[in-house]
Protein 1
Amino acid sequence: MAGFITNGPLSEEAERGWSNHDAHWRQAYRGRPEHAERDYSDVQPAYRYGYELYNNNRNRPFEDIDEADLRAEWEARNSAVPWENARGAVRDAFTRGDIDHPQAFERATD
């Protein structure tokens, strides 16, 4: 394993961005079939992890991050929810990370 992918606490700016994402996911998570029977408090850590991953890996697509590393870090942080149950929310939040960072979208479309 190459080591953990997140680098500690988020910057103040990223923390403010997380508040916006958290509000979005609090409303949107029930529309995801895999979360139909869960409270938001059960899935929020996975969305947060995905957001943190994006903030520390802005130049990498989600698919380029080693899944074994993602799983290991997730399990070290949150052993109550299996990786298989968290992966979709992590990926969704990672992908949505671009919304707060339009320059990343511009780079991808140049």
Note: Helices lie at 12-28, 40-56, 67-77, 83-96, 102-109.
Protein 2
Amino acid sequence: MTGTATKPDSIIAVERWNGFWGARDLEGMKTVAADDFIQWHATVRKNLTKDEEFDMLVEALKVMQIQFKDIRLTPMSNDTVLQQCLGDITIAGAGSRNDVPFAMVFHTRGQQITRCDEYMDGMSLPPIDFTPKD
């Protein structure tokens, strides 16, 4: 019998999330996000519920194109995954930036994501007008 490495559920969840995001399949992403999913963006600086996050993504995709590349996933303790990557971002009327450093910390339960904390080099981003305001 030959040994085959199996991926942890946490990595499977994040890979599925990334695959759906790459295809701009928000409905697919919703299947990976747990019902109690929370998103925290460095640009917004507040916890967004699942509904708030996906409402924002619908608006964001009307004016923004972002492609993540050089994605590195590192499984951590407690079903957490660190994702490091670069993003090429274009925002209509605001310009483009390439190779913006991003880091995401995904918390998972089984093959679902319960929380994503997203950090990026904000000084490298074009102006963003579609983020919610308090």
Note: The longest strand covers residues 95-109.
